């Protein structure tokens, strides 16, 4: 495994890895996993899928300052370079791109990528400018790495929708590969931010996955009254005294458009995202579940179906 800290070195090492794969008779398809580090088994699952499908595997670790809002503490984001590199090597990464802020943004950035519409709700509403920063840095990383496939976890389903829209609109030659949410044994979605939860906050945070599981039954019973389902979701989360709701919502996916009030003919056969963002103390957690809507009934998409659901149209 090679470690690149400059854009020039990353490009050179990726080319060398492709040449080596070609010489050894292996696939030169390049799989890319962009991250902000502090890696966990959710990230490892992305790396394992890339290892299964690609002959060259690239991981980036970069805490991107332009996706943090003015009230969000960039310096507080957890970091563990040694642990990240160990996990990367254990999961077959060929090249780790680990740039500094100065390498990625050597001077004030004057060009940004903005994806309209799908960014205006959910996290886009509560974190203005966040997805502009995400789209900009991902487009930069795609230009540096030039991958054939890029792997993203569905825990941030809106981010996946944003990246897919960007890739489609700008004809970027990369296939987006959404991957299922990885959870702890008790149901809590893996997140780098979980480390900040106190013991009682961690216990109460289980209400998120519990609510999403119950939502499947509520949707099956709702007969199209999605507003009532949203109210039940909010009420269930509020049974935990430490839960401070940022948003609870139901959106058509990947459009990120409201489903409320639509006649059955306009939502039957579509996918529905039940999405949550809730603070426990100072820690903001997100979680979601993806459903397929029918005539008054719903089913949860299985992991393989979730993964295929968002594959880019490029």
From TrEMBL:
Keywords: Ligase. It is an enzyme of class 6 (ligase). Its EC number is 6.3.2.1. It comes from the Bacteria. This is Pantoate--beta-alanine ligase. It comes from Paenibacillus mesotrionivorans. The gene is panC.
